[in-house]
Structure formats: C-alpha cells, structure tokens
Design goal:
The radius of gyration is 21 Å and the shape is globular. Among the domains are: 16-79, 3-Layer(aba) Sandwich (MutS, DNA mismatch repair protein, domain I), CATH 3.40.1170.60; 173-228, DNA polymerase, domain 1, CATH 1.10.150; 245-345, DNA polymerase, Y-family, little finger domain (Dna Ligase, domain 1, 2-Layer Sandwich), CATH 3.30.1490.100. The chain has helices at 16-24, 49-52, 62-68, 79-94, 122-137, 149-156, 172-177, 189-197, 203-207, 211-218, 222-228, 259-280, 312-324; strands spanning 8-13, 33-36, 44-47, 73-75, 100-104, 107-111, 141-146, 164-166, 245-256, 282-293, 298-304, 333-345. The strands form three sheets. It has a five-stranded mixed β-sheet with strand order 5-6-1-7-8. The protein is α+β, with helices and mostly antiparallel strands. It is built from 13 helices and twelve strands. Mg(2+) binds at residues 12, 106. Its cofactor is Mg(2+). Monomer. The record marks 17 as: Substrate discrimination. Belongs to the DNA polymerase type-Y family.
Length: 359
C-alpha cells in the first residue's frame, strides 16, 4: 500500500514583531519601524513593511538601517508579548491538526492530510486559519499550501503580506523552475554565489544540471538540490522537534585579518544569535565559537556557565573573550560562527507523492 498523499501548509506571520508593536501602540501604525537595537552595534530583528520599502531588512545593522530610512523608529523587543501571541496562533493551529512543526515564534508547518474538521481541501483550512488569526489576534498571516514542505515554505512568501499561494500536484516543477536559487530554502548566500558563477540562476538552470555535475561542485548537498529543482521533498512534518543548539555563522567574501574586523563581526553575529535565542526561547549554558581559516581548517572554542545565558551582553562578552584568546590568528578567517548548546528550553517554545485530491 502506498503512503497516503500529503497536504502541507506553511503559515508565516507578517512582519511579526513589528506588527505586534504597531497593533499595541497605535501611534506606530503606518510608520517605518524596526524592532531591535538602533545603536552602533544594534541589529534589526524585524522591520515593518513601511520600513522595508526603504530596503530595511532583518539582520541588518541598525546604523545602516538608519541611513536607508532616516525616519526609522527603533522599538525595543518585547519577547514576552510575542510569545503570548505565538501561543494564541499555535492554539488556532491545534483546532485543525496535531501535526505541527514550529520553526520559530512566527512560522510553522502543518500537516493537514487528515484535518480534525474533515474539510475537503487544505486551501480551505489555510484560509480558515488566516481568518481566525486576524479575528483573534488582530494580525495577518500568509500561507503556502502544497504537497511538500519545500514548496509550501516558498509559496508562503509569494504573496506577502496577508496572502496565500497554492501549488497543486503537477505544478511543483514549474513553480520551482522560475524560482531564483537564492530563495530556495537550503541554498545559503555563499552557495548561491557559487551557483551563479556556474550559470545557475533559477530552478530551471539547476534542473538542467545532472546529479554528477552537482555532486562535483556541491558534494553531499547535491541530492537535495537535484530533487528540489524538480519540486520533490519527502521530509515529514515533525510534531515537536527538540533543539540541541542555536547558532549563527557567516562566510565572508574576503578573509578577516585585523582584530577590529574580527571583533566587529563577532559582535554582529552575537546580536543576530541573540535574536534567534529570544525568538526560539532556547537558552543555553555553553557558548561555542567557530572559526574557519583561509585554508578551510576549522577550530571551535567553548565556555560553559553554571546557568543559561539570558542576556545579550553576557553572550557578546563571552563570544568576544573566546575570540580574543585566539588572537593573533595564524591566517585570515573566512567564516565565523557562534552558538549556544546545553539548552534549557522554555516548555512552550520550539524552535513525496503527488496529491490525488484537491488542495
């Protein structure tokens, strides 16, 4: 017997942190705001759509965001408020299915192959979820509906904000063909640049390369890219995945050599990591620094605490100390990474076949 076909929905709240702030503070509505730090070393966690038209984006340094949008209003994050709303949204999901995989406070996969209400289509389920979110939280969400996780996630971003995109059986390969490779989940910025250098700009370009070619240039990741270009993805929706770590890393176009450049990057990565920690509610006792050198040699250094790290200042201070203990470096660094392990997670925080029935 073949496994039953799947109906997968990806729900993504629109500019979540910023939207919560604008909902709760009427004077912020219609204005360009950024949730995060506006200081010299601050980082944008989320920008409102009014700010995004100026080019302000998540993970952007606060100083650059201010240059792009001089009228930008920075708002300090209120993660307790975001978690409260996230719990409301999660409860709405649970009315339709128990197979829910949260990715963060503001997005999740849902497997509604057999939804609790017995609705005929996943599109109807997604529209009902969006309606309930709007009515019960005052916020909007976008949805992607498809037969696998890869396409559902990409689809949820197609008609943002407050939109829905449905990719039906038989449409997956065509949907992927026009997709820029940099947008495919699992293709990072450095890999996208390598693909562009090989003449691979879109999913169609990727599909035109055989598996041997992709293995030659991308190693163990090649089978994923080969199947992704064809709209194939058989990963299941996991009901609750226990995080083992939270991390951020960045590969540089030019190797970092000087103390000033290295410290500045570690500070920036620590800010970005703190945003992910707060977003997932996963606080760790061990801070880990990763350095990849110009010759691709990798070292890691760590420091463990008696209690979980619960402030951005302590995280940045620990990361800086781990880095400074390694200076001067034997050669330039092409990658820096920072993570927390030995997590003490909040209880309520987490970080195939074609369909033969209508989506």
């Amino acid at each position: 017997m073949e496994s039953p076909p799947r109906k997968i929905i990806h729900i993504d709240m629109d500019a979540f942190y910023a939207s919560v702030e604008q909902r709760d503070e009427p004077e912020l509505r219609g204005k360009p705001i950024a949730v995060g730090g506006g200081g010299p070393r601050g980082v944008v966690a989320t920008a409102s759509y009014e700010a995004r038209v100026f080019g302000v984006k998540s993970a952007m340094p606060g100083a650059r965001a201010r240059r792009l949008c001089p009228d930008l209003i920075f708002v300090k994050p209120r993660f307790d408020a975001y978690r409260t709303v996230s719990a409301q949204v999660r409860e709405i999901f649970s009315r339709f299915t128990d197979i829910i995989q949260p990715l963060s406070l503001d997005e999740a996969y849902l497997d509604v192959t057999s939804d609790k209400l017995g609705l005929a289509s996943a599109t109807i389920v997604a529209e009902e979820i969006r309606r309930m979110i709007r009515e019960e939280t005052g916020l909007t969400a976008s949805a992607g509906v498809s037969y696998n996780k890869l396409i559902a996630k990409l689809a949820s971003d197609q008609n943002k904000p407050d939109g829905i995109c449905v990719v039906r059986p038989g449409e997956g390969a065509d949907f992927m063909a026009t997709m820029p490779v940099r947008r495919i989940h699992g293709v990072g910025p450095v890999t996208a640049q390598r693909m562009h250098a090989l003449g691979i700009e879109t999913g169609a370009d990727l599909r035109s390369r055989d598996l041997a070619f992709l293995q030659q240039h991308f190693g163990s990741a090649a089978p994923f890219y080969y199947r992704a270009a064809r709209g194939e993805d058989d990963r299941p929706v996991h009901e609750r995945q226990e995080r083992k770590s939270v991390s951020v890393e960045d590969t540089f176009l030019e190797d970092l050599i000087t103390r000033e450049m290295l410290v500045a990057e570690v500070d920036r990565i620590a800010q970005s990591l703190w945003g992910r920690i707060e977003k997932s509610g996963a606080y760790g006792r061990t801070v880990v620094l990763k350095i990849k050198f110009a010759d691709f040699r990798i070292i890691t250094r760590s420091r463990s605490m008696a209690a979980p790290v619960r402030s951005p200042e302590l995280l940045a201070e620990t990361a800086r100390a781990l880095l400074l203990a390694q200076l001067p470096l034997r050669m330039g660094a092409r990658l820096l990474g920072l993570g927390v392990h030995n997590l003490d997670q909040d209880e309520d925080a987490e970080a195939g076949q074609q369909l033969s029935f209508p989506l």
